[in-house]
Each structure stands twice: as C-alpha cells, then as structure tokens.
Write a structure and sequence with these properties.
With about 500 residues, the protein is α/β, with parallel strands linked by helices. Helices cover about 45% and strands about 15% of the residues. It is globular and about 75 Å long. It binds uridine-5'-diphosphate.
Length: about 500
C-alpha cells in the first residue's frame, strides 16, 4: 500500500536551543519518514544587527535548504516581531518574551498556511508555541507538541494541572520534594523558577498551558528510552502519567546537529586548527549555551579556577551580567566592541595564551565537542548541550543557570554518573576558584573522570542505537507517522461529512 504524503508544519520558537532540535526533527521526518515539512523559524528582534549566533543560524538554515535529499523540506523565516513594549522592563522574563513573540507571529503563519497549494494536515509546536494549537483545531490539523528537553521535565508538565496547591506550597515553603508519579522526586534545590511562590497569576497560566499540551494529538520528546527508562515509562503508561495525555507520547531522540567529519571540514577555523595540535582528551570546553551569562565576580573566579586546573581550554566568554543568567538569549551582542580582556582578570589572557583560547560570544560547539582533543565540558546543562556532549562521549562539569537546568545537572551527576556538579557557596552565590579547579581535575584527570568517560561512551552507543532502524526512537517516529496518516484520513472523512 502506498502511504499518502503528509505535510507537517513545524514552528521553531526563537533561540538556537529551540531551532537546532526542531530542524533536526524536520529533517528526520522528511528524510526517513516521507513527510513534506515546512519549518517556520520564528524571529524576534534583537538590538544588534549581526552576531556570531545569527551567522550560525543562517548557516544552519542554508545547510538544511541545500541538502539535495530535502526537496520536501521548506523553511519560512517569519518577519521579526518586537514585543519589548509588552514586557516589564524591571522583571526580565525569558519565557514570556518567547511566548509573546510566538503569539505575534501567528497571523503571518496562518496566512502562509492558508495560501499553500498542499496545506499541512499536521502542526508541530514546541512548548513555547502552544498558543498555536487553537489555530490547528480551527484549520482541522492534528497537533503535536515537541519537548526539546528530557522526559523528567516533560513529566512535570504533564502532571502539573493535577498537583495540588497544598503540595506546591509544601514544596516551596517547607522544601519538601515534589512527587511526580513514576519519576524521581524534584528536590527543592533543583526546582524550577515557576514553582517558587507567588503562584498567582503564573499558576493559572501554567495550568492553562499544560492543559493545552495535554489536549494535543501527541507529544514528542528529545530523549530515548534507555537514557531515562523510568521517566519515559511513566509518561507513556496509562496506569501512571499516560492517562492524562490525549494522545501517545513518543521519545524520538537524541536529535542533535550533525557535524561534517573532520576530513570534510570546509575552510580554516582557528579554534579547530588549534585543537588539531592538542593531545587527545586534553582540552576542557566551557560554554553556557546560546544565552547564558555569569556575573563579573563569577567570571573572575572562573578564570582563576581554570588557571589553577592547569588544563588546556576553550572558553566562550560573554559580557558579564548581574542578576539575569539568560541575558544574552536575544541580545547576542558582540561584547559591545570591548575586547574580551576587559571582562577578565588582569593578565589572564596573556598568561594562558599557550594553553587556552577565549572565544567572544559564540563558538562552533557541535564541531568542538566532536574533536578528539576535547576531554571535558563545563556546561550550563541546556538539553542540547547535554545531548551533544553525550553523543560525543564527553563527560561534564554540570553548572546549571536557569530553567530546568538544575534538574538536568542532578540527573547527569546522580543518576547517569557522567558529570560532577558545581555548587555555589550559597543560593545565587558564586562557585569559587578552588572548587572550579577541583571539578575540572575530577573530570579531566582523576580515576572518577575515567569512569565517567566509560559511562558516557555507553550512553553514546545507546543513543545511536535508539536512532537506528531497529531502535526505539526510530520506532516511535514510525508510529507517529502512522498515527498522522490515520488522523489525516479521519479529518478528510469529517470534512466530507461537513460538506467541505
Ligand atoms: N551553541 C553553539 N555555540 C555557542 C553556544 C551554543 O553552537 O557558543 C549551540 C549549542 O551547540 C546548542 C545550542 O546552541 O546546540 C544551545 O542549546 P542548549 O539547549 O544547550 O541551551 P540554551 O541555549 O537553549 O540554553
């Protein structure tokens, strides 16, 4: 039987951490599962015209559009929208800014969809795009929510409307662990910003958002069963959390950006050429994701800690900020024209010029992590960074900043045993230089680091297996494809009976 072609529209919310896995999902659906795919790349305004991350974004879009096999993948970049006048300037709220940008982009997306000759029958959004789900219902499309994060965090979202306010208060005020059926409890020190009071009106908004997620025809997650056996079981099984979702849950990961093998590398890249000269597994890479920033004082400690560790390093350095760890998420500034040295302790760059490189703002992370000279990764634990590290067999120093990153750090260090975790002296405080040097030493030099490297390489193999033809994640996407075909038939027979 010939399977009819399905057209899926996918919305990628602003931020490289959302764009990268969304593009990978689109590619997989087009290449391996016969979909026609249109990806809407939602764009927010930034205060600068160009940045290294913008260049990377254009490269990713260009590379994807150029792939011959991907005639069935179209990319539409939405016009940038500015929501700054709708935000409270005194209370930076990353989630709110992304969500508002999504809402403002919807009229454009809707008109594009309505003008298509072969309109999509499937809409896939990430968790910031759930405001588009009513549009999917209106246009008789089936809807899917893609969590570009792990099953544990997804489990909290699924269960959130059913957690009593009393349990939330005990968690916030008495620091009792938050119990999620079938999953590890969330300890208060790892909790999400939204679980700390005051809850109103955020509580109401989060419940509404998660109810919208639960109503979707399915949920996709960028994880795989063997990485998170308990949490994936919990969200799939009807007896546990599966009862709360309208449709099935599909773990489809690990989806990470594919990097050209070394021998096919195009052009000269100073960082990669420098790495070529370094011994195997001798260099530690430090990066806080696409938008992470640290304070001036923390930056000074980190610089001294790196020096004390006596390891080769590559460090992605950004302008320090006070009190907003996600400050560079939209405003990918090129350090305002100031040389890196202005942000770092006296003489650091000159003292370390033979052992390390400081990169301003943005580095080719996926390429760096793939390089054999990399032996460890100091990461903010954004889920893409975690997956890129695991799939390159690189153990981590887990240094979470915001969102669900503290949970990720605990999972990596306690459950999976592939990271050591940085602990600030006090809540919101700095991680001191002595601790930084010790953490790097534990990963790069100690027996503990060797054991972590063995474990992370096992997870790498298990991730690759999940994506292979007989693997669990490949099977999940195959099943999702069949479900989409089923919905499409259902929708067309409903349309016939409506006389449409
Ligand atoms: N990234 C990069 N270069 C940088 C910083 C980040 O290529 O200097 C990429 C990184 O490889 C990852 C993504 O940006 O794919 C960041 O996603 P993640 O989920 O780790 O963190 P987020 O930025 O969403 O907090």
């Amino acid at each position: 039987m010939v399977t009819p072609k399905i057209h899926a529209a996918i919305l990628a919310s602003p931020g490289m951490g959302h764009l990268i896995p969304t593009m990978e999902l689109g590619k997989l659906l087009a290449i391996n599962h016969g979909f026609e795919v249109t990806i809407f790349v939602i764009t927010a305004t930034t205060t600068t015209n160009s940045s290294n991350s913008d260049t990377t974004k254009s490269n990713i879009l260009q590379q994807t559009s150029n792939l011959n096999s991907l005639k069935s993948l179209n990319i539409i970049v939405t016009p940038p929208v500015d929501v700054s006048d709708k935000l409270d300037p005194n209370k930076p709220n990353l989630g709110q800014r992304i969500t508002l940008t999504m809402i403002e982009s919807l009229p454009f997306i809707r008109s594009q969809i309505l003008s298509m000759k072969f309109p999509p029958s499937v809409l896939i959004v990430d968790i910031f795009g759930t405001t588009a789900l009513p549009m999917a219902r209106d246009l008789h499309m089936s809807s899917y929510v893609f969590f570009s994060t792990n099953a544990w965090f997804t489990a909290i979202c699924i269960y959130f409307p059913f957690i009593t306010k009393e349990a939330l208060l005990r968690h916030a005020n008495n620091h009792e662990p938050l119990l999620i059926p079938g999953c590890e409890p969330v300890q208060f020190e790892d909790t999400l910003e939204i679980l700390v009071p005051p809850y109103e009106p955020i509580h109401e908004a989060v419940v509404n958002l998660t109810r919208e997620i639960l109503s979707a025809n399915g949920i996709l997650i960028n994880t795989w069963q063997n990485l998170e056996p308990a949490a994936t079981k919990a969200i799939i099984e009807h007896e546990i959390l599966g009862q709360f979702t309208n449709g099935p849950v599909y773990p489809v990961g690990p989806l990470v950006r594919n990097v050209e093998p070394e021998e096919k590398r195009e052009g000269e890249n100073l960082i990669l050429s420098w790495l070529d000269e370094q011994p195997a597994e001798s260099v530690i890479f430090l990066s806080f994701g696409s938008g992470g920033t640290i304070s001036k004082c923390q930056m000074t400690e980190l610089a001294y800690g790196l020096e004390l560790s006596k390891q080769g390093f590559i460090w992605v350095v950004r302008q320090p900020t006070e009190g907003d760890a996600s400050a560079a998420f939209f405003e990918a500034k090129d350090c305002d024209g100031l040389p890196i040295i202005n942000y770092l302790s006296d003489g650091f760059v000159s003292r370390t010029k033979d052992v390390g490189i400081c990169v301003t703002m943005w580095a080719p992370q996926a390429e760096i992590l793939k390089h054999p000279a990399i032996g460890g990764f100091v990461t903010h634990c954004g889920w893409n960074s975690v997956l890129e590290s695991i799939l390159n067999g690189v153990p981590m120093v887990a240094w979470p900043l915001y969102a669900e990153q503290k949970m990720n750090a605990t999972m990596l260090s306690k459950e999976l045993g592939v990271a050591v975790k940085a602990t600030p002296i006090e809540e919101g405080g700095v991680v001191c230089r002595k601790q930084i040097a010790e953490l790097i030493h534990r990963v790069m030099v100690d027996e503990e680091g060797i054991a972590m490297r063995v474990k992370v390489k096992d997870y790498k193999l298990s991730g690759e297996k999940a994506l292979s033809v007989c693997g669990s994640s490949h099977g999940s996407l195959y099943q999702m494809t069949k479900d989409c075909v089923f919905h499409m038939h259902q929708q067309s027979s409903e349309a016939k009976s409506r006389g449409a």
